[in-house]
């Protein structure tokens, strides 16, 4: 898919959070979180339920205003730009996106082009090519003439991912992109995210599947009770001790004997593993 250049040209792009706090009433959801994501990075945000992961993603996308701190894109505060301008550069797949009207799947995906269209300008051949490319990448093109309310939950997830890709941003933010998907389509989505990052997009995904996150992402960000408590190489961030302390479960980390990738196994109470050598 072709991608228009955002604010800064000729150099990597950076989406940065500096000292971000967010609260609802007296409850502080995020506490002084600082984080930077650059072009070509593939980052997973992990943490227990209620850690603030979805809130952080929405603040990064400019949908929630921070109580303190600033979000910048290439050094410019996104608060200075209209929503439509932000959406041309930061594409978000929310956790509970809804489409309750009887639109054709093709039209739902084409809605992702809205930030790039003028009020009275219809989609151009370039827009349609981007829409088609997004549907091909997510294997949703065969669903193009189906009604969105008549597809399965997993198919809808892929369609909404295609809509997000059609937005054609430089940064792709996804909240649980593999939710509701079978194994084959989980592999499709993870492979697609890895490819997009290799092509220069900044990709950030909230992940609940720690095993998938630790094996598939180059960098993890660990949130706990609204605080960033770990960031970096996956097996360093999610050590056995950290998993026990933050998630309250026993686990073991191993290396895949074929490709050396880290594998995570959760243990039932009292279970012991003696056949393999753990990473730590």
Describe what is shown at a glance.
The chain is an alpha/beta fold and 280 residues long. The protein is built from nine helices and twelve strands.
Structure in words:
- The protein contains 9 helices and 12 strands.
- Helix 4 packs across helix 5.
- It is globular, with a radius of gyration of 19 Å.
- A hairpin with a 2-residue loop joins strand 1 and strand 2.
- Helix content is 29%, strand content 26%.
- The N and C termini lie far apart (41 Å).
- With 280 residues, it is of the alpha/beta class.
Write the layout of secondary structure elements.
Layout: E1 14-24, E2 27-38, E3 42-46, H1 53-60, E4 68-73, E5 76-77, H2 83-87, E6 90-93, H3 105-110, H4 125-137, H5 153-166, E7 171-175, H6 183-198, E8 202-206, H7 210-216, E9 219-224, E10 227-232, H8 234-237, H9 240-247, E11 251-255, E12 262-266
Parallel strand pairs: 3-8, 3-9, 6-7, 7-8
Antiparallel strand pairs: 1-2, 1-4, 4-5, 9-10, 11-12
Helix pairs in contact: 4-5
